[in-house]
Amino acid sequence: MRWSPLPRVVIALLVVLSGSGVAAVTAADPAIQLSSVVVTPDDPNTGEQVTIDATIANLQNSDTTVDVTDLYVRKPGTLQEFARVENVGSVAPGGSLSVPISTTFDTPGQKRLELNVGVRDEDGSYHSYTYPIYIDVTEPTVRADLAASTPTNDTGVTRISLTNYGNTNLSNVEIAAVANGTVVDRNFLQELPPEASGTTAFDTDAVDADSVTFTATYAAAGGNHTTTLAVDVDDETPVPGRVRLTAIEVSRTGTGVMIQGDAANLGGTDADSVLVRVGDAPGVSPTPPSGEYFVGAVEASEFATFELTARTENASSVPVEITYLVDNERVTTTQRVDLSAAGAPSARAVGVENEPAPGGMNDPRGSGGPPLALVGGAVVILGVIVGLVIYRRRS
């Protein structure tokens, strides 16, 4: 039997029990409503605790206080129960009661369940109601990786990050640093949920070894796991900041070109006072408003946008001069931007007026018929003449 796709969480089942549920309902039944059912987590793994939080409301127009005698989760059509809570409490008219009930599942797959509620009114009569719940249970996946980095201003420290790429929590996380077969340091991390990372720092400046092996141990999916990473501590000096132009777009303007893109820092240290400007070359000159552009500071492995405008005359490329400070030293470099890919469509995209193309609709020499403006004007004049003729005939 195949089921159509259903939501994993049954939210806001705002159906008065007098109109829903498996049990037959009479006019004498209390006005009970299950105002919400929330399943946490909504995509559990096998063996993971699942909590079903049910809110039972006694509507304002009810004429009796009810006692919630039991709440249980059962497989439809069977007596197999996954969880049960008894003697839950009383609910007066206009009140509500939130009841959590927890269970686990040993096998994966879509679980079709029933949440059953039993109540007793002031007359001692018992009433029961049934609500469907659908939970998709998956097998746990355990996968985690270590990564190392060095702070810009502290070359004697190694930062180790552990990232959880699986679908289950990592707990009891411990990372040990081993050099020459001896544990030199040990740090701990908090529990890591899926798609989360944790970082800790190790002092490796005094380690008398060429490399340090970092080993992370953690508990997940009912077992213990390890992940290792070897780091060459003699090669921890970061690469100096290096600014290059990337993601460049060139657009034609009426008098030249507009160059836009990113000034990216490809190094491992920050670059300060980054300035880009149109360089000197035959047929190329900077023009307002952006003959030069002050980018400012660009952190390591980050980028910032820039925009330049230049006049070009029969030039195939534009030299862009890049100057910046890195480690208190000024660096100047030049990068040439190819103009062969620049075209009219890009110029229109930035709102620049285009020159008419020969033979096109904007070209007065084109053979595509009279200009649209003249045709429109003729239509307007003709309409005015017809109107005057009709007016004179009627008068």
TrEMBL record:
Q: What is the lineage of its organism?
A: Archaea, Methanobacteriati, Methanobacteriota, Stenosarchaea group, Halobacteria
List the InterPro entries.
Ig-like_fold
Q: Which PANTHER family match?
A: CONSERVED WITHIN P. AEROPHILUM (PTHR35902:SF6), S-LAYER DOMAIN-LIKE PROTEIN-RELATED (PTHR35902)
* Residue ranges crossing the lipid bilayer per the database entry: 372-391
Q: Which species?
A: Halobellus ruber
Please give the residue ranges the record annotates as the region Disordered. Answer: 342-366
Q: What is this protein called?
A: CARDB domain-containing protein
Note whether Nucleus occurs among the keywords. Answer: no
Is Nucleotidyltransferase tagged as a keyword? no
Alphabetically sorted, this entry's keywords are: Membrane, Transmembrane, Transmembrane helix
